[in-house]
Amino acid sequence: MGFFQHKDAYKALQFPEFRAYVTGNTLFTIALLIQEVVLAYEIYKITHNPLALGLIGLAEAVPFISLVLFGGHFADNRDKKTIMQVTLSLIIAASVFLLYSSTQLQSADQDFHIYSIYAVIFIIGLSKGFFSPAASSLNPFLVPKEVFANAATWNSSFWQLGSILGPGVAGFLYAYAGLSGSLITVIALLLGVMFCIFQIDNRPVPVKTVHHESIWHSLREGIAYVFKTKIILYSISLDLFSVLFGGVIAILPIFAEDILKVGAEGLGILRAAPSVGAVVTMVTLVYFPPLKHAWRNLILAIAGFGLATFVFGLSTNFWLSVTALFFTGAFDSISVVIRQTVLRFYTPDEMRGRVSSVNGVFVSTSNEMGAFESGVAAKVFGAVPSVLIGAGVTMVLVSLVAITSKELFDLKVDEKVSE
């Protein structure tokens, strides 16, 4: 079907609450990624220790993973909008404290400055443990069921747009406005997120949710549902292991500073490159969804991600490295659309918070714990060998999953969406 024949490609954007949601999600992504990039570069400039970069991921992952399952339970049993507002307020307060510590305390005590960075990251991880399940489980209620596949693509596209703008802006902000100027921008963006949340109406708790059940029973029910639904379990597991071992984002400051020697501005370009690839691919997927032969496409996308990561590890040329990162984002975006669609159409409404929280554990393990793994591997093996080893492990794992999940190749995800 031709490009201009897809008249419903923008259908989800016709709903005002969905527009507010994706705008807020984009601003939230930009804000946190600006903060992540500048804090990582700040810490590496002070310590020149790859392990210090890995500890950033650990500081966020530990509270997030510890609380996100409880966050999913509360998202299924409480007003999602209120949860988002309260936890976002905590993130804003933590960012204000970080601004204060960076302007008033850095020169007095550099160690305290570093510890305050880790403390704020810890608070953000704690807050996201409740914010993320509430936001993820609210999303499907903002558009009709028949529009959700389109909404998932647009939501991912806007998220990737934020993932481009955040790191790209961060490098230049840090270079020309310093840490304090970057943090002021972060706080302003987070206030914009709060405004967007106010534009969304409160949603009632689904009637099938059992309010009197124990929290432990509720959590076990959500976990059990994920593990008995193979398409969900396998899709989020693939993402976990590919990014856990094959991700390079956390150690990009090492490549920017010591290997490619391109400084903060170059780091911004490197950090944004995967998201540029993702957005280009996402725009294409709006018109040509990857849902026919979904499992085959997911396997190929993860394999492509591993191959592009391997090329990045071998590269000593800045623009070749940027290109390789571009393709990691392009392949990952295919995985994101398929995984989000699977979660939407294979999860009952009354369990969305809990299933989203289990997915959040997998995602955080792959991203934040993956960042810790990257830092440790870079410390032990060196930056380049750690990337090559991780890419090789990803390729082996995706091959094993492809062999052990043959029944999923026949699953008709596209027909499920059109029901």
UniProtKB/TrEMBL annotation:
Topology with respect to the bilayer: Multi-pass membrane protein
Domain Major facilitator superfamily (MFS) profile: from-to ranges: 12-409
Transmembrane domains' residue ranges: 20-39, 51-70, 82-100, 112-131, 173-198, 231-256, 268-288, 295-312, 380-403
Subcellular location: Cell membrane
Database matches in PROSITE patterns: MFS
Presence of keyword Cytoplasm: no
UniProt cross-references to InterPro entries, sorted A to Z: MFS_dom, MFS_trans_sf, TM_effector
Taxonomic superkingdom: Bacteria
Entry keyword set: Cell membrane, Membrane, Transmembrane, Transmembrane helix, Transport
Name under which the protein is recorded: MFS transporter
Organism: Aquirufa originis
